[in-house]
Write a structure and sequence with these properties.
It is built from three helices and 26 strands. It is mainly beta.
């Protein structure tokens, strides 16, 4: 088995395609380092929605985008972490607001600031790494004033795609950890035939804005038919190993969370042809509530990985 790396263009943006065995993954570094495509035996297994152009031009997510420095949304436009107070203003930073006027998906959606630092290719995998010096951009620091470096690697192997984000705290302030990813999975076929497995133990009750109320319920672990059920659910504690699955008569897709990811959002609108198992380092709104909010101490690093694996039936 031989891996290869191909440089090209996707919808007018430079792209890098990793290929090995049955898999091919296309990454677009200048548009958020997004995984724009993942194919298995020639079949696309990521939800495309509006595609790269809608993501680049309007922030409409697809594929596998990074949500940084917070996943999901915040309950307001101010937050405090320790002695640091932050005011979020769309005119001063690359901030998006949801339909309720709440900050959503962080500050790096479709960011052009990723710089490729290396690619590697062996007989076993192909990989690309890019970095952002967060402290080099005043508009990013205005929304998250904790100077640090990010390194993001997408590595494609014989079983699927492994994504690793490394946070390197470089200066005097610790860096809060509230990020996540939003993989859109497209198993294909009739949604009524999909079965999902959720390795979950507790479920957060959400209000009409999608924010945790503070009430926690026991969650049902295991397999279930998806059918016409809709999900936009936050799970606060996960079973081990935390492997989320969706299966159809044609294929099985798994999202395996590394230990750094303690929470998950499951998103599947009733009429959608995709489902999302979103790895999160902290619950929704953690920058404001402080709930389960960890930090990277100055001079230290934090690495978080997850894998998307696919098998044909």
């Amino acid at each position: 088995m031989t891996a290869k790396i191909t440089h090209g263009e996707l919808d007018g943006s430079p792209s890098v395609t990793l290929t090995i065995g049955d898999f091919s993954a296309t990454i677009v570094p200048t548009v958020g380092m997004v995984v724009a495509s993942l194919t298995h035996r020639g079949v696309e297994v990521l939800g495309q929605r509006g595609g790269l152009a809608a993501y680049r031009d309007h922030g409409s997510s697809f594929g596998v985008p990074l949500l940084y420095p917070w996943a999901n949304r915040l309950s307001g436009v101010t937050y405090n972490v320790g002695s640091v107070a932050v005011d979020l203003h769309p005119t001063a930073m690359p901030l998006r607001l949801d339909d309720h006027g709440l900050p959503i998906h962080g500050l790096l959606i479709a960011s052009p600031r990723w710089q490729v630092t290396g690619t590697s290719c062996t007989t076993h995998f192909a990989a690309i790494t890019a970095a952002i010096e967060f402290g080099a951009y005043p508009d990013l620091l205005a929304g998250f004033p904790f100077p640090h470096r990010l390194e993001l690697t997408h590595e494609l192997g014989a079983g699927g795609l492994r994504t690793t984000l490394v946070v390197i705290a470089e200066e005097n302030l610790p860096v809060p950890l509230a990020f996540g990813f939003h993989p859109y999975l497209a198993p294909g076929g009739d949604r009524s035939s999909w079965r999902i497995e959720l390795p979950v133990r507790t479920h957060a009750v959400l209000d009409e804005r999608g924010l945790p109320t503070g009430e926690i319920e026991r969650a049902e672990e295991g397999w279930r038919e998806l059918g016409t059920d809709a999900y936009d659910d936050l799970y606060l504690s996960l079973a081990a190993p935390a492997i989320f699955r969706v299966e159809t008569p044609e294929r099985l897709i798994e999202v395996s969370f590394g230990d750094a990811y303690r929470c998950a959002q499951v998103y599947a609108p009733a009429d959608a042809d995709f489902i999302c198992f979103e790895p999160m380092t902290a619950p929704t709104n953690a920058l404001i509530t402080g709930d389960d909010l960890r930090e990277v101490t100055p001079g230290s690093t934090f690495a978080a990985s997850f894998e998307i694996r696919v098998r044909s039936r």
